[in-house]
Amino acid sequence: MTGVYFEDHLRGPSPHELGVRDETGFSETEQQLREYFAGERQRFDLPLAPRGEPFRQRVWGLLRQIPYGETRSYGQLARELGDQALAQAVGAANGRNPLSVIVPCHRVVGADGSLTGYAGGLERKRFLLELEGAGSVTRTARLF
Predict the structure, then answer these.
(1) Where residue 57 falls among pLDDT bands split at 50, 70, 90?
(2) Which of 25, 72, 116, 118 has its CB 3.0 to 4.6 Å from that of 110, i.e. a possible disulfide?
(3) For the purposes of burial, counting CB atoms within 10 Å of the CB of 107, is it exposed (0-12), middle (13-18) or buried (19 or more)?
(4) Above pLDDT 90, what percent of the chain?
């Protein structure tokens, strides 16, 4: 799977970037998403093949390691990559995550715990975090 996007997704791919549509595996993806939204699944077990430069791939790999119901800040992820100064680059890579929900970019928040940019919209981000029991995040800030 190379991409899962919301209908009104910000910064999604243009139609020519999507390539040939392949329905293979979609039923399993749909089933796992259904289980996630029903509170029955905390981790996705799907073959993923997101397209992106090496730095983005590293960030997306870190996103997959954030446990269900927990959050990390952009700075924390930058430190995991070895350089606190990479926080903005982490934010940019997070914003280009092509596998919404499945690669949990919604679990990344501002250093003060505030909601910051989410290509699916901040209300969806808040919903996903509350679904996971990550606590009530009330403040919002715009990252992009």
Answers:
(1) very high
(2) 116
(3) buried
(4) 64
Neighbours of 118 (CB within 10 A): 27
Residues 6+ apart with CB under 8 A from 36: 42, 44, 101
Q: Which residues make beta-bridge pairs with 73?
A: 109
| Complete domains list, the chain, with CATH | 25-132 (1.10.10.10)
Q: CA–CA separation, 19 vs 22, rounded Å?
A: 9
What pLDDT is attached to residue 88? 95
Sign of CA dihedral 49, 50, 54, 58: negative
Give the pLDDT band of residue 82 (cuts 50, 70, 90).
very high
Kindly name the residue from 66, 78, 105, 129 that is annotated as catalytic.
Answer: 105
What is the rounded CA–CA span in Å between residue 57 and residue 76? 17
For the residues of 79-134, what is the DSSP string, one character each? Answer: HHTT-GGGHHHHHHHHHT-SBTTTS-GGGEE-TTS-B---TT-HHHHHHHHHHTT-
What band does 3 get if pLDDT is binned at 50, 70 and 90? confident
DSSP secondary structure letter of residue 48: -
